[in-house]
Design goal:
The protein has 171 residues and is mostly helical. The protein contains eight helices and no strands.
């Protein structure tokens, strides 16, 4: 592996969460997003000579990811209606161009806030967002009533947002 490929590998590894988050935002399915992330990695490695190392890696990589998602939509003969896909992609790009230091502080805060949750709630979040389990299967796996899953997840997301905001305000 040459230096450029090694640097690309490091950049991909450091920014995996941001790139994947953008893809998830666009396709709204974790399993599909993981597959598209793999395609994005291959495209990044294939195009690494085009990357200008004096510029930020994340927006460049997210631009590649955006193109990969558009190719996926064309293959599936689908696209979010009313230009929503473009708007989502543009918002995701803005997010990707954000402050790297803030991104790292928020991830560190999320990890800390997540660890403070009861293990049952951690498990619920991991099943839903880590393993993309939904509906009755999620209720059964998490030992929760189906009717309370959405409310519980919404409350957990709100609680995590509050905790992250508090922790990042401290630093």
């Amino acid at each position: 592996m040459d230096n450029r490929s090694f640097q690309s590998f490091l950049n991909i590894t450091e920014n995996r969460s941001r790139i994947l988050a953008m893809i998830v935002t666009m396709v709204r399915d974790f399993d599909v997003a993981e597959d598209l992330f793999q395609e994005t990695v291959l495209e990044i490695l294939h195009s690494e000579e085009q990357f200008d190392p004096t510029r930020s890696f994340t927006p460049w990589a997210c631009g590649i990811a955006k193109n990969v998602v558009h190719q996926y939509w064309r293959r599936q003969k689908q696209s979010p209606a009313n230009g929503l896909g473009e708007m989502i992609a543009d918002l995701a790009m803005i997010s990707a161009e954000g402050d790297d230091e803030m991104w790292h502080r928020e991830r560190k805060a999320l990890r800390s806030c997540f660890q403070k949750l009861p293990s049952r709630m951690q498990r619920l979040l991991l099943l839903r967002y880590g393993h993309n389990i939904k509906g009755p299967e999620l209720a059964e796996s998490a030992a929760c009533r189906l009717g309370s899953i959405r409310t519980t997840l919404a409350r957990l997301r709100f609680q995590l947002r509050q905790c992250i905001q508090a922790k990042t305000a401290e630093s």
